[in-house]
Amino acid sequence: MAGTAITRITGSRDLYDPAHRGISASVNFLTCHDGFTLYDLYSYNMKHNEKNGWGNTDGDNNGNSWNCGAEGATDDPEIEGLRRRMVKNAFATLMCSRGPAMFFAGDEFCNTQFGNNNSYCQDNITSWLDWNRLEEYKEIHDFFRYMIRLRKDNAILRKTTKPAACKLPEISIHNGFPWNGGTDNNSRLIGIMYAGRDENDIRDDIVFYCMNAYWETLIMQLPELPMGMQWKVCVNTFLPYKDGKNVEEQTEFYYKKSLKVPPRTVIILTAEES
To answer: Buried b vs exposed e over 193-229: b needs ≥16 C-beta within 10 Å?
Structure first.
């Protein structure tokens, strides 16, 4: 599972060799008009298409969803907090994946279809965008905006650029500790580093993505950067997002070399001059 995730995040080169297919062959998405919304993906274990009139027999039965502990709407703040984190994890992963990115309208403010994964026949609140949720889920909307900006600012996340002057490889795997590319059925912590020149060929563009899929905190040992550079934490989905917030101050980050990755969390770092 972890190995497959890494392959897909890094552009599905087993299916779309960039040397022959270019950088746009692998279109990445998590949700679309067929299936759950992103919020519903983490709010329902089962489809709820009863109102479609087919006895809940229509729509796909393999949604790969998880309700985080309660089916549908809940007042439990821990479950709601986990759902928000999972949505941020999903979008952060999408924005760190090679190839064109697509997301479903409304996912940026946690739009819901109330568990209906086949709402084609519902011309009502089930299929409409509920813009009132934009205020309720402003944190998620702002996080989406930030991740889009991060992807735009770091071309190496989107495509191959000129090789890094520091000689780091374009893509390298660091699952738990530097240069560990191995995975098995027990792999819970993955790390991917992208390195190349920025679009203006002025500096090296280096980004590190790590994901802890486990329900307990795990330690990530970071690869060493060239002299004169250091890691900076720019995303930590365990923390509530707020524009301008210094997430590194609230991340357990030791000597710029290792960090604690909280349960079910994505952390992203960029290299900066020390």
So the answer is: bbbbbbbeeeebbbbbbbbbbbeeebebebbebeeeb
Same domain, 169 and 209: yes
Greatest C-alpha distance within the chain: 65
Residue 143 belongs to domain spanning: 2-153
Give the pTM. Answer: 0.96
Cα dihedral sign for 192, 196, 198, 204?
positive
User: 3-class DSSP state for residue 97?
Assistant: coil
- Tens-digit pLDDT profile for residues 129-158: 999 999 999 999 999 999 999 999 999 999
Q: Do 25 and 147 reside in the same domain of the chain?
A: yes
- Are 98 and 9 spatial neighbours (Cβ–Cβ below 8 Å)? yes
Backbone torsion region of residue 54, taken as left when φ is above 0, otherwise alpha when ψ lies between -120 and 50, otherwise beta: alpha
Task: Please identify, among 100, 130, 153, the residue that sits at the C-terminal boundary of a domain.
Answer: 153
As for how many domains the chain has, the answer is 2
